[in-house]
Design brief:
Blueprint: E1 6-16, E2 20-21, E3 24-25, H1 26-36, E4 42-46, E5 49-50, E6 58-59, E7 70-77, H2 79-92, E8 97-105
Antiparallel strand pairs: 1-7, 1-8, 2-3, 4-7, 5-6
Length: 114
């Protein structure tokens, strides 16, 4: 089990719900690769409204604009491990935003096995 305490880096990836990687959701591929890289954890959040560099608003309120809603993938781990993962994002993310923030991990515990 990965241990995480103290200073860490938060990697946040903003993409669209319709973004794909080899016919799979891009967010799922990012999570799959983060797990394969042994990163401490990854979470995907689905947004209900947003816009990005294109300034086109995507929202669940208008049926015609409910495609390509925002998706955010958050990964937190020690800085060297997160930075080592960045080249994979260069390969995966064609459109979107990738942000790094310094954070402090206060508690990181998993469920007991079994």
């Amino acid at each position: 089990m990965t241990r995480l305490a103290g200073r860490a880096l938060r990697l946040t990836v903003f993409v669209g719900d319709s973004d794909q990687w080899h016919h799979r959701p891009l967010s799922s591929e990012i999570v799959r690769r983060a797990r394969a890289a042994g990163l401490a954890g990854a979470t995907v959040f689905h947004g209900v409204e947003g816009y990005g560099a294109s300034s086109v608003v995507h929202t669940t309120r208008l049926l015609s604009m409910s495609e390509d809603l925002p998706v955010v993938v958050v990964i937190i781990d020690e800085e060297p491990r997160v930075r080592a993962f960045l080249p994979q994002l260069d390969e995966l993310v064609g459109e979107g935003l990738v942000v790094l923030d310094e954070v402090e991990a206060v508690r990181y515990t998993g469920r007991p096995a079994g």
